[in-house]
């Protein structure tokens, strides 16, 4: 890396912080020519941007992985339909409510109900579940993350009391989408779902894996461009990590290094976005979640699922669910965040974006 290129990337980082955007060509250069100096510069500027909007507060979300049945067959995912080794489970409403009660006692004010696309959880059952959570926890935010559904279904669940919805776009490039998913899945439908969600009034989250198979640096620029234009309230990114029982078992995993670099760029492009330091980031590298927060993230999502099912929601090999990833060890998380100068917040942590 020549000194000249290093200087150029640092100047691009500064311009991004000033203007909140760069041309696609400049973003590509910032990513392709990344180096220790540009990473350091982005980290500092993104940290300042996050602090201006959210201060040193880290929001927590209690993640309840309530079913690992899935009708989809995504090539990267450990709970894909075709993985016959996956041990399937489905929590019933009362068990999910029990998780929420435990979470509430611990201090969680957002519950994220996440699952595979499980046909058993049709609109009627999901609506019943959401209404029960809403009734018992009127002051908590409910986030749903159960994949692609019809607009009518999204409307019904919103009316039942869901506040937020997470649906990663996975990649903003159709040809790349088709490398990650079987032909029966549709890029256009996924994008339509995201538009519907936002239009209905959900605080909406999108996101992608970093260095998923076939992803180019140009594809990452397309992801950034899409996110800048879509203006989601939340963005979840984490490194692709291979899973031994999927078609991508031999594929190379993504790095924490590029993931945190992108976190900083995203923070500078969308200063108000809610940006988690994800479990995948923590799994890719020891201390990865701290690096994520130091790079501009402001959310963490500890696991609130019953201990007995945590190991069954294996999206990728070695997925963490113990230590400070476990909701019941919030003290460890407080310590971890405290050690880098951050405080775990106990409010709902709604988006500061205006829509
Ligand atoms: N590595 C990293 N992330 C994964 N996801 C699914 N499988 C993997 C994997 N092998 C992510 C997808 C999905 C989210 C729930 O988990 O982006 O949207």
Question: Could you explain how this protein is built, in words?
Answer:
It contains 13 helices and 9 strands. The chain has helices at 3-19, 24-32, 36-54, 93-106, 123-136, 151-159, 174-180, 187-200, 217-230, 256-269, 279-284, 288-294, 330-338; strands at residues 57-60, 62-67, 110-115, 141-145, 164-166, 203-210, 234-239, 299-300, 343-344. The N and C termini lie far apart (41 Å). Bound molecules: 5'-deoxyadenosine (5AD). Residues 76-77, 168, 170, 209, 238, 240-241, 243, 280, 315-316 line the site of 5'-deoxyadenosine. [4Fe-4S] cluster binds at residues 70, 74, 77. Residues 56-278 form the Radical SAM core domain.
- Which molecules are bound in this entry? 5'-deoxyadenosine
Average pLDDT = 97
Compute the number of helices. 13
Helix content: 40-55%
Low-pLDDT parts are none
- Strand residues, percent: 5-15%
3D shape:
globular
Order of helices and strands: HHHEEHEHEHEHHEHEHHHEHE
Look at the helices and sheets and give the structural class: alpha/beta
Strand line-up across the major sheet: 2-3-4-5-6-7
Beta-strand segment tally: 9
Profile the largest sheet.
Answer: 6 strands, parallel
The N- and C-terminal alpha carbons lie at a distance of: 41 Å
* Radius of gyration, CA atoms, in whole angstroms: 19 Å
Quick structural overview:
With 355 residues, the chain is α/β, with parallel strands linked by helices. It has 13 helices and nine strands.
Question: Which descriptors would you attach to this protein?
Answer:
4 iron, 4 sulfur cluster binding; HydE/PylB-like; FeFe-hyd_HydE_rSAM; binds 5'-deoxyadenosine; iron-sulfur; 355 residues; alpha/beta
């Amino acid at each position: 890396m020549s000194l000249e290129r290093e200087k150029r990337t640092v100047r691009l980082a500064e311009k991004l912080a000033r203007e909140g955007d760069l041309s696609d060509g400049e973003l590509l250069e910032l990513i392709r020519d990344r180096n220790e100096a540009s990473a350091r510069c982005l980290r500092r500027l993104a940290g300042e941007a996050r602090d201006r909007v959210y201060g040193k507060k880290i929001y927590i979300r209690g993640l309840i992985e309530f079913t690992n049945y899935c009708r989809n067959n995504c090539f990267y995912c450990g709970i894909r339909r075709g993985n016959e080794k996956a041990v399937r489970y489905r929590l019933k409403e009362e068990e999910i409510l029990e998780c929420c009660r435990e979470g509430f006692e611990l201090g969680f004010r957002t519950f994220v109900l996440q699952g595979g696309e499980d046909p058993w959880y049709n609109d009627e059952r999901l609506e019943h579940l959401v209404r029960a959570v809403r009734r018992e926890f009127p002051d908590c935010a409910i986030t749903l993350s159960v994949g692609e559904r019809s607009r009518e279904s999204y409307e019904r669940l919103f009316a039942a009391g869901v506040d937020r919805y997470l649906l990663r776009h996975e990649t903003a490039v159709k040809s790349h989408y088709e490398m990650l998913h079987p032909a029966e899945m549709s890029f256009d439908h996924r994008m339509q779902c995201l538009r519907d969600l936002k239009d209905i009034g959900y605080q909406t989250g999108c996101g992608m894996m970093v260095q998923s198979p076939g992803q180019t640096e140009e594809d990452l620029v397309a992801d950034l461009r899409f996110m800048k234009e879509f203006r989601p309230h939340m963005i979840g990114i984490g490194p692709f990590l291979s899973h031994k029982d999927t078609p991508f078992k031999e594929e190379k995993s993504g790095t924490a290094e590029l993931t945190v670099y992108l976190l900083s760029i995203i923070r500078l492009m969308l200063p108000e976005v809610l940006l988690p330091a994800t479990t995948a980031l923590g799994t890719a590298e020891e201390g990865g979640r701290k690096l994520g927060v130091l790079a501009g993230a402001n959310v963490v999502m500890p696991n609130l699922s019953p201990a007995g099912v945590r190991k069954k929601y294996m999206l990728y090999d070695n997925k963490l669910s113990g230590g400070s990833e476990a909701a019941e060890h919030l003290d460890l998380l407080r310590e971890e965040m405290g050690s880098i100068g951050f405080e775990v917040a106990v409010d709902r942590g709604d988006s500061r974006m205006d829509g």
